[in-house]
Amino acid sequence: MHFGLLSYQDVLFLVARCGSLYGDAPFSWHLTTKKARSAQAPLDTPDARTFFRVYLIDAKTSTLKAIRDVSLSPEFSREMLATLSAQSARPWIGDEAFKMQIACAALHWPNDKKFMSACTCRCVGE
Q: For 86-124, how does the pLDDT look when each residue is reduced to its tens digit (9 = 90+)?
C-alpha cells in the first residue's frame, strides 16, 4: 500500500493506493473525539512510526473485504503529526466550511491519481 499526505486549507487528506485502487480520506483533528486526541502520543525517537488500521470495503455492497494494520515511515509519521499539530492550534472552521474545502479540493484534483501526485509526502505502508 502506498500513502500520501495532502494538506489543503484546513483539511488533511490521506490518499491511499493499493494496486490499481485509489482512495482518499479527508480529516480534521477537530472532528476527532477527546479520547482519540489524547491517544496519539508524540513520536519519541527520530525513527518512531505511527500505526493505523486500514479497512477495504466494497463500495457497491458495503462488504468488508480486508483489514490490515500498517506502519508509516518515520518521515511520513513526523509530517502527519506536525500537520495535525498545526491544525489543532487553529480554530474549528465549522462543518459547512470544512465540506466546502473538501469540494474545492475535488475541483483541483478531480481523481485520486491526481490527489496522489499532489501529495507533499508519500510512503509505502509496511
A: 999 999 999 999 999 999 999 999 988 898 999 999 999
- What grid cell was written down for 84? 495535525
| Contact predicate 24/112, CB 8 Å | yes
Grid coordinates belonging to 77 = 509519521
Chain CA centroid to CA 73, Å: 14
**Is residue 3 within 8 Å of 123, Cβ to Cβ?**
yes
**Which uninterrupted H or E stretch holds 63?**
strand 63-71
C-alpha cell, 68: 490490515
Residue with the three cell numbers 499539530 = 85
Of residues 114, 111, 124, 121, the one with CA closest to residue 12: 121
Q: Name the residue ranges covered by the structural domains of the chain.
A: 2-124
Alpha helices in 13-94 (DSSP H): 34-39, 74-89
